[in-house]
Amino acid sequence: MALNTASIRADFPILCRRVHGKPMVYLDSAATSHKPRPVIDAVTHYYEQINSNVHRGSYQLAVESTDALEEARKKVANFIGAGSDAEVVFAKNATEAINLVARTWGCANLSPGDPVVITELEHHANIVPWHMLAQENGINLRWIPIDTNGHLDLTNLDRLLDGAKLLSVAAVSNVLGTINPVAQLTEAAHDAGALMLVDASQHTPHLPTDVQEMGADFVAFTGHKMCGPTGIGVLWAKMELLEAIPPFLGGGEMILNVTKEGFSTADVPWKFEAGTPPIAEAVGLGAAVDYLTGLGMKQVRSHELSLVSYALNTLKERYGNHITIHGPQEPAERGGVLSFDYKGIHPHDVAQVLDRAGVCVRAGHHCAKPLMRVLGCGATSRASLYLYNNESDIDALADALADADAFFV
């Protein structure tokens, strides 16, 4: 069943806004998605009716708050096919989740010279933590290159994985939209004796996500890109790994006992959730999971696939060689991200002109500077699609691009 975008758009109050007197066309969901009314209402209800700390009180509000947090964890676990609720660790975003792995498993298991393999299309969140370990521990970073179509070049994968301890890969590129073969990469990593970490920040909001099918050891994603609040993210990991690795932060909530001589940790997942967690944000994420589940993630993917196809055809037909859209040209091989160069006009200038028409796109390096260097540019304009977008949004983008000619061409 196709998504009813008119009905969906009515669920998002912000989409009624006008920008510079024009109806807003929001094409920046790869940076952050908008929030539907059920998510806004869930967060409001929490603060108005429940607001209390968790796991620390026996009075009614405290019990309700704890139940709300753990119910959200259960919803997330079911949404991603986790084997247990306890495999879901709440963090403030995917960046923190990846840093958690680097600072716990990485520091405990990586020695000077140990290879960690990443790719040229990674977000900085999956680059900088490993650079930090390289500076501190002397680990060796290896890079999987991309080919001219924006796919990973796996020609030398066996050599790159030889002796590696970890392969860490984005499931979907936030710049090129490339959908990477996660299950294949996981199998290759495990065959080489390495663990697998997946940055699913651009995958979980847009495609059905099953961590068991991925086969990975760690999966990180963030809530604000999947209709949830900011300030909440998830690390999923295999239980044996979570039990074996040390805690990330120390303080309240993550302890079982503390004495003058030392401390013992709480069980997983609370072992990794020091201090008061983002309770309202987790409740909002749970509501976002309910919303996406109600729509159906297969339907979300089908809708975006149709939009990507329409966008590629529309922009190429109207602008031909004057527009370069980076990444795979086959819609089925990419997510709803379109990074482009238009007539050599600086991306920030393009974005400014589009903004005057009410069209919101991102311009810059998209937290992927190594990839920008591979592409041979300092920045791109990026339009990113989601479940509330429709073909008229693509038409508005195409029309607004023509306005740039009057200014810069």
Protein architecture, described:
The structure is a single chain. The chain is α/β, with parallel strands linked by helices and 409 residues long. A seven-stranded mixed sheet has the order 4-10-9-8-7-5-6, sandwiched between helices. Strand 5, helix 5 (128-137) and strand 6 (140-144) form a beta-alpha-beta unit. It folds into two domains: 5-30 and 296-408, Aspartate Aminotransferase, domain 1 (Alpha-Beta Complex); 40-294, Aspartate Aminotransferase, domain 2. The mean pLDDT is 96. Helix 2 (37-50) runs antiparallel to helix 10 and helix 12 (347-356) crosses helix 14 (391-408). It contains 14 helices and 17 strands. It starts with a helix and ends with a helix. It has helices spanning 5-10, 37-50, 60-80, 94-109, 128-137, 157-161, 182-191, 211-214, 239-244, 279-295, 297-319, 347-356, 369-375, 391-408, and strands spanning 18-19, 22-23, 25-26, 88-91, 115-119, 140-144, 166-170, 195-199, 218-222, 233-237, 255-258, 263-265, 323-325, 337-342, 359-360, 362-364, 380-384. The protein is globular.
